[in-house]
Write a structure and sequence with these properties.
heterodimer; A: 195 residues; mainly alpha; 12 helices; B: 242 residues; flat
Chain lengths: 195, 242
């Protein structure tokens, strides 16, 4: 396994998905040492050790999903981008808990091209609403769709769900159809997600 | 669920399975046909929902990552490398467990001492009870769901203490050790109290709070009324060697 990733290798692995993405995540979470720097910032803004754990892990997940969705335009280094996501996550969490409002003014300006907090966190805002739909989807569908979204091959998904690659391919279609059908019955949610 | 009339075409379009002519025709129809547009918007919303599933899957994979070996690299499939690796493991194990030379790191101590909870969901209640659903989620390996469901049980509920026990273990498995310790601290009575107190000490240790972990162990040892007293003494001794 690669012990070190430069930005190019990291992005390539995340885009490739599947097992390579797992390696990239392992590096980000355990080997990069980036949590320490981000943690210092969060602690300096009244965050606790558990806040640092939470925010960094969530930040890495958002980084991966954003990169895969084409929302990272390489206007900054991956570390700077992740740091920006984590600070925004912390800012949102902090303000949501209404501890202090003035922290907004203390946020350093984000690098050019870096999406604002609302961009990173749109899913969080709608999470409860989405869960009400996703809960009707069934665990196998959830697993198949999430792994497909993360770039796992049908064969790899089949290994994880004890099914053949052909079955997974059909399931991906059927599950997406079911989810779209559930969404179509919730125009309020579709509208909220468009905004 | 709402019946869909255009899903096959929407899927083909979104998956890039249409040729240029088909794409152009589809896009023209998309701007003219309200029904098609509504279904397409629902598809786009579904993609957002799948992103949320991906975030949760990544959270679960991060948990598994801690103990899992790196993904297979072709060279490791070669016989001589496997033999060499096995020999190295044996040597490392011999060094690790040789009396007097033991000095384990916190993650190694956690692996050595962690006792998995014995969660038995009540299937009759699993549909409507968040505590039981959280147990199901924990057992199925979905720590994100377990945390969400156990964390939703309010403090005034009769299920609260048991839910905090599930929450503590789910956080532990999610490598959120400070949160794990905080949840276990709320398990103040019941049959899970011994396991909660001991696992809390492990969580504190993994959170880098070694002194707090020692204090937690000392409480278990001094009270001397738990089945974890002996384990607490052994862990205390191991901590002294660190």
């Amino acid at each position: 396994m690669t012990d070190r990733f430069d930005d190019k290798a990291l992005l390539k692995a995340i885009h490739k998905g599947g097992r390579q993405l797992e390696q990239a995540m392992h590096y980000l979470l355990r080997k990069s040492g980036w949590q320490e720097g981000i943690g210092q910032y969060i602690k300096s803004k009244s965050g606790s050790r558990e806040d640092v754990e939470d925010v960094f892990q969530e930040g890495v997940r958002h980084l991966i999903v954003n990169v895969r969705a084409g929302r990272f335009h390489q206007n900054s280094s991956v570390k700077t981008y992740l740091s920006s996501i984590c600070k925004n996550l912390w800012y949102t969490k902090f303000t949501r808990e209404v501890k202090l409002k003035e922290i907004k003014n203390q946020l350093p300006p984000a690098p050019e091209g870096t999406p604002g907090p609302e961009h990173h966190l749109i899913l969080n805002e709608k999470k409860e609403l989405l869960n009400s739909v996703l809960d009707q989807l069934g665990n196998t569908c959830k697993k198949v769709l999430s792994l497909w979204s993360l770039g796992f091959s049908f064969k790899e998904i089949g290994e994880e769900t004890s099914q053949s690659a052909g079955t997974v391919r059909k399931q991906k279609f059927d599950c997406m159809k079911k989810l779209t059908s559930l969404m179509a019955a919730r125009p309020d949610l579709v509208k909220a997600l468009k905004e | 669920m709402k019946p869909l009339n255009h899903f096959d075409r929407i899927f083909a379009y979104a998956e890039g399975q249409m040729d240029e002519g088909q794409r152009t025709a589809f896009e023209a129809e998309l701007s003219a046909d309200v029904g098609l547009r509504a279904e397409y918007d629902a598809y786009l919303a579904s993609q957002k929902a799948v992103e949320l599933l991906a975030l949760e899957e990544l959270a679960n994979r991060a948990v598994k990552d801690e103990k899992k070996e790196p993904p297979i690299i072709p060279i490791w499939r070669k016989r001589w490398v496997q033999v060499a690796a096995a020999a190295a493991v044996l040597i490392a194990a011999a060094i690790l467990f040789w009396p007097g030379s033991r000095s384990l790191t916190p993650p190694q101590l956690a692996t050595k001492y962690y006792v998995a909870p014995n969660l038995s969901p009540d299937r009759n209640l699993a549909d409507q009870n968040n505590l039981e659903r959280s147990k199901e989620a924990y057992i199925s390996g979905s720590m994100t769901d377990a945390i969400r469901l156990a964390g939703s049980v309010p403090p005034d509920s009769s299920d609260y203490i048991e839910a905090q026990f599930v929450l503590g273990h789910a956080y532990f498995k999610s490598n959120q050790h400070a949160r794990s310790a905080a949840a276990f601290a709320n398990v103040t009575m019941g049959s899970d109290q011994g396991n909660a107190a001991f696992t809390r000490a492990l969580a504190l240790l993994l959170a880098g709070q070694t002194e707090a972990a020692k204090e937690a162990l000392k409480v278990i040892i001094d009270k001397n009324n738990s089945s974890y007293v002996e384990e607490a003494r052994k862990l205390w001794d191991d901590l002294d060697k660190m």
